[in-house]
Amino acid sequence: MPRTRKPAAKGRSAKKSRSRGRDRNRRGLLGIATRLVYWCFVLCIWGGIAAAGIIVYYGAKMPAATTWSVPDRAPNIKIVSVDGQLIANRGASGGEAVGLHEMSPYIPEAVVAIEDRRFYSHFGIDPIGLSRAIVTNLVGGHFSQGGSTLTQQLAKNLFLTPDRTLERKVQEVLLALWLEHKHSKDQILEMYLNRVYFGSGAYGVEAASRRYFGKSARDVTLSEAALLAGLLKAPSKLSPARDPKAAEERAQLVLAAMRETGKISDKEYKTALSAPATRAPSYWTGSENYVADTVMDELPDLIGDVRGDIVINTTVDLNLQKLAEQSIRRLIDESGKKLNVSQGALVSIDDSGAVRAMVGGYDYSTSQFDRASEARRQPGSAFKPFVYMAALEAGRTPDSIRNDAPIRIGKWTPDNYGGKYYGKVTLATALAKSLNSVAAQLTMEVGPDAVVEAAHRMGIQSDLQANTSIALGTSEVTPLELTSAYVPFANGGYKPDIHFIQRITTANGKVLYEGTTGSAPRVIKADIVGMMNSMMTGTVEVGTAKKAAFNWPSAGKTGTSQNSRDAWFVGYTANLTTGVWFGNDDGSPMKKVTGGALPAQAWHEFMVAAHEGVPVRPLPGTWKSTPSDTIVPDEIPSADASQPPAAPPAAVGQPAPAAQAPAPARQARPAQTVDADGFGMPSDGGTTASVGHPVPPGDVGGPKKRRQTSILDILSGG
Predict the structure, then answer these.
(1) Is 115 annotated as catalytic?
(2) In 3D, which of 432, 673, 444 has the Cα closest to residue 562?
(3) Which tens digit of pLDDT belongs to each residue from 244-263?
(4) What residue numbers bound the domain in which 180 lies?
């Protein structure tokens, strides 16, 4: 018996041993879990203490809660013309405050569905939404979602700056809790909808509804409400006035969210998709809105933040503005398809630097991009006056003789239009006929740096590359800066500050800003002004801009870039300087449109109307040409700009000797073509009209950068 019991005892002993091992393992795991829970609890306590400390620290920086109050609605900015006519309302433009019960019920439903689904259930902060946003951002590796509620957004808009700092976020949370305590959900939503920015200068649903649909927020349909709600993610980017396709795609997401939350039925969803919102093309179509946009850009630098309703008196003459717009639109309507031209711009500036009219495109409602002040294009021969000015300052005169013949500068051959050359000509004739050969010779004589300096001194702000091809306008400029650089020719040699705003007042008449009318610095000597005006008068009288002439003494210069991609005429009287540009946004060529065609026509129409009833004044400066039989010409260089002056000139129509001057910095590319304005520019292929050598590329003008003029500009980023 004892023998039979021993195995059983051993078995029981083994079982007990295994059981004790499992118990020890369970106790070990339990201990680990207990310790983990304990330390998590400790960390939570310390984390809570740290969070509370941060909240107390930043909260202490805020004013006492008893002093908090909801500020008035966003101020209105009224922009008027020089004679007091309304140009535009910005800020809360055209939109009164609308009660939640008055507006279309689709608007608040759409906003809640896409922006804050738990708006009516949370206490100002949505922990669920915040947690989801944190997880999404961590998984995605970048910030793609925000966890702010509508209450937090309202708090930010009402009280805080848009800075993304921990301090601002803490203050936003505290203010959101205060708003929820002081106001009902409907009151918070109503305040939000009447203050939030919807893009294109529209603050509040009423302003946005009238801006985009030409109707009150009371009458907005489901599809229109979805579009409005969709704008809140990125108002400027998604504005249907700027990108209708993006706005509609976002509206479809809003409709889907409304269906998911049960705000609309499947039938309503399908109906709204089949009938998308259409914006009102008749609202904000006027070109004066390009002026209003520019004014709004300048406003912060003049008075800082706008705290109340203000009135901005501009320098713009609204009647002239309308005339300019009508001229640009009429010419494009009549000739756009035939000549493949879709856009135009016009800038007119008086002698004091006040902008009297500025048209930034064919139709503001379809494109808010301002081609007058933002688009940089090659000016072509319209840049040549700065070449001739530099030559006159170096001792030449309008009667100086140059040999207009084929030349070669390194590997570049600046041909005249059609390969036609005139032999010995005066500088006055060369400028009037826009002869590229002579302009290139002058640039070689005085040096490209002198030309760049002259252009910058006159008012060109863009970077200019100091190479020989600058003679033909290869560096890009805006119509506004090119026109402003001609103003000293019109006013006797002075460079005024170009400005749109003359006064800013409160609604009660208190002056917040007054433009100064101090003396402008002289940038050209009086005798040089007289010679330049004498030469550029020839452009209008017998040269490339004869279509621009009218019964006032006037002068100017045409310009056309390669393959007629840009066509310009900048001209002036002693009263106004006006620049006109025609082209296409994508840079596609027009059909043989030159500066002497559409631009000169638009300039003529505008200037005739602008000078009606105005006493005639001569251009400043006097200069008389020397009779040809008594001309004592200065040294006449040969067509080869690198040869000494004593060398005989090249025969007209014959190739020039090979130049020894250094080639332009960029490597040569295919040969050039010449446009009808006499603007020899590189093309994508083919041969030149004479020598047929490669030339610099068409983008030789360099990058689109604003010229830094002082250390203050550099420090301020201006």
Answers:
(1) yes
(2) 673
(3) 889 999 999 999 999 999 99
(4) 92-274
Residue 707 lies in a domain: no
Find, among 316, 250, 706, the residue nearest to 500 by Cα. 316
Total domains in the chain come to 3
* Distance separating alpha carbons of residues 289 and 369, to the nearest angstrom: 11
Alpha-carbon distance of 73 to 76, in angstroms, equals 9
- What does the CA dihedral 330, 332, 333, 336 come to, rounded to 10 degrees? 160
Choosing from 81, 93, 109, 115, the catalytic residue is 115
Q: pTM for the full model? A: 0.62
pLDDT means per 10 residues, the chain with 718 residues, are 53 61 65 75 70 60 58 78 87 69 95 92 80 62 63 81 66 83 92 87 84 88 95 87 87 95 94 83 77 91 84 95 95 94 96 96 90 93 95 94 89 80 93 92 94 95 89 92 97 94 92 86 95 94 90 94 92 96 94 92 95 94 61 37 34 32 33 41 30 28 38 32
Phi-psi region of 203 (alpha: psi -120 to 50; beta: other; left: phi over 0): beta
CB 202 within 8 A of CB 211: yes
Is 381 annotated in the active site? yes
How far is C-alpha 408 from the geometric centre of its chain's CA atoms? 39
| Identified catalytic residue from 148, 381, 400, 554 | 381
Residue 624 lies in a domain: yes
Q: Strand, helix or coil at 375? A: coil
Out of 240, 274, 308, a domain closes at 274
Strand 576-583, strand 343-350: pairing = antiparallel
